[in-house]
Design a protein that fits this description.
Elements lengths: L13 E5 L3 H10 L5 E6 L3 E3 L4 H5 L5 H4 E3 H4 L6 E5 L2 E5 L4 E4 L3 E4 L2 E4 L3 E3 L7 H4 E2 L4 H21 L9 E5 L3 H17 L8 H4 L1 E5 L11 H13 L3 E3 L4 E4 L3 E4 L4 E3 L2 E4 L3 E3 L16 E2 L5 E2 L2 E6 L4 E2 L1 E2 L2 E2 L4 H21 L11 E7 L2 E6 L3 E4 L1 H14 L3 H17 L21 H17 L3
Parallel strand pairs: 1-2, 1-9, 2-5, 9-22, 11-18, 12-13, 12-18, 13-14, 20-23
Antiparallel strand pairs: 3-4, 6-7, 7-8, 10-19, 15-16, 16-17, 21-22, 24-25, 26-27, 27-28
Helix pairs in contact: 1-10
């Protein structure tokens, strides 16, 4: 089994960071000028701006607008190295991280920042039939599915079945609200693409939330405004509605009702990455690792858990799984590594709540800032756009997102309407590119042998 050089033989301590999301990337940035060696490990070679995944799914942005190559971020930096790989085991005794393919990395300090994944809460059928939205491939797959449903309906609507253009979003948090608002905007755009039917009349979006109101963490006026705007724009909002099970062509609710749908988006909750289960440490109900006040893992002082993987004690329970918590905790872990190298001590993590924002759609959003300041409507939407563009990694990403958003805004046209899979329109059975090429060749042979 190949191993890297043991860290004890290196002049500089070796810091391994697992995950290149908000927390991991911030930790690596904080350490790039420190007297350490950093290896940043991720199964993807890019950092994704997760809050805008829904824009990719709803044809507002392209995948490369919200994703940036990790090696390019640290280009020219000799401290941070990137390793493309999937973590399969962690040995805290030998202080090694094992990757798929019999590769191992020794570490002096380990930062676990692998983020979160969708959770189905054990509801039957969700894993098999629902569309999650946690990664770039998830967003592209959902976009393919939605656009293909309209193509199927246009081609032979009688054969598409009930619920072909009924899109159900489960979860009334920020992701669910943003998805629902974007769905109805996409319906408007697609109405100019299909002349045989009115997409705004035939397509519909339902937003299901099991609690009393949408956006539970927000103030009551913000929640009421959100629902009012969504319903005014055509979204069927149903609160106090729990999902019992999901089938390929319908969703069964706990109250006995059934909603025909062939596309269900799951935005109902997350749990910590399975990487959290590789370490023998106490976890909360969402699989997050319960950490010490300085973000180290109990009994493993050289290991830090940050971001969505960490159950960080706050004033009102554990801190929420938000981007700001991830960024601040990733930075804190990196600072404590440097502090321990200098002084042998560490400080407790203190989260500074900068507020929260959620967009509902064109000219409508809600925002709450530190100090109790709450805004909604166009101002909140404008601030949301500015802040999200500013936080994208890389000038090209920021410029491209700005141009695309400006184009979408002034033309009422979501321009990234590309279907990028290889699913035959007739039966929706996946087909490899080689199979398509072979069918084309066979058809050409048939044509060539026919008499002219």
């Amino acid at each position: 089994m190949p191993f890297d050089t043991p860290s004890s033989t290196s002049e500089r301590p070796h810091v391994v960071i697992v995950g290149a999301g908000f927390a991991g990337l911030e930790a690596a940035k904080t350490l790039r000028d420190a007297p350490v060696r950093v290896t940043l490990v991720d199964r993807n070679n890019y950092h994704k701006f997760q809050p805008l995944l829904y824009e990719v799914a709803m044809a507002g942005l392209e995948p490369d607008d919200i994703a940036h190559n990790i090696r390019n971020i640290f280009r020219g930096n000799e401290t941070v190295n990137f390793r493309l790989g999937t973590v399969v085991d962690i040995d805290p005794v030998l202080q090694r991280v094992h990757l798929h393919g019999n590769e191992s990395l020794a570490y002096d300090h380990l930062v676990l920042a692998a983020g979160a994944v969708s959770t189905d809460f054990g509801i039957p059928g969700v894993e098999e039939h629902a569309y999650p939205l946690k990664n770039v491939p998830d967003a592209v797959n959902l976009r393919n599915r939605v656009l293909r449903q309209f193509e199927r309906y246009d081609r032979h609507r009688a054969a598409t079945g009930e619920g072909a253009l009924t899109f159900v979003v489960v979860g009334g948090g920020p992701t669910g609200v943003e998805m629902a608002g974007a769905f109805v905007e996409l319906f408007d755009t697609l109405n100019n693409d299909f002349s045989e039917f009115d997409t705004r009349e035939q397509a519909r979006c339902l937003l299901l939330e099991m609690e009393d109101e949408l956006l539970p963490p927000y103030k009551s006026p913000q929640r009421a405004y959100t629902r009012q705007v969504l319903e005014a724009r055509g979204v069927n909002v149903q609160t106090n509605t729990a999902v019992e099970r999901v089938a390929s062509d319908e969703v069964h609710l706990a109250d006995g009702r059934t909603i025909p749908t062939q596309t269900l988006v799951w935005a109902a909750g997350v749990k910590a990455s399975p990487v959290a289960n590789l370490l023998d440490a106490e976890q909360d109900r969402g699989d997050r690792i319960i950490v010490n006040p300085d973000l180290t893992v109990p009994e493993h002082p050289e290991v830090y858990a940050v971001g969505d993987m960490a159950a960080i004690e706050g004033t009102d329970g554990y801190e929420p799984q938000l981007a700001q918590v991830a960024i601040q905790s990733g930075e804190h872990a990196a600072e404590q590594i440097q502090r321990r190298l200098r002084e042998g001590t560490s400080e407790e993590f203190e989260y500074w709540d900068l507020g929260q924002m959620a967009t509902i759609g064109r000219n409508a959003a809600v925002a709450e800032f530190a100090g109790g300041i709450a805004v909604r409507g166009f101002l909140a939407w404008f601030l949301w756009v500015v802040i999200h563009i500013a936080k994208l990694v890389g000038f090209r990403n920021r410029l491209s997102a700005l141009v695309n958003w400006a184009y979408n805004y002034f033309t009422y046209n979501r321009s990234a309407r590309l279907i990028l899979d290889m699913v035959p329109i007739s039966d929706d059975v996946p087909m490899e590119v080689e199979d398509v090429d072979q069918q084309v060749k066979e058809r050409l042979k048939t044509v060539e042998t026919q008499p002219h």
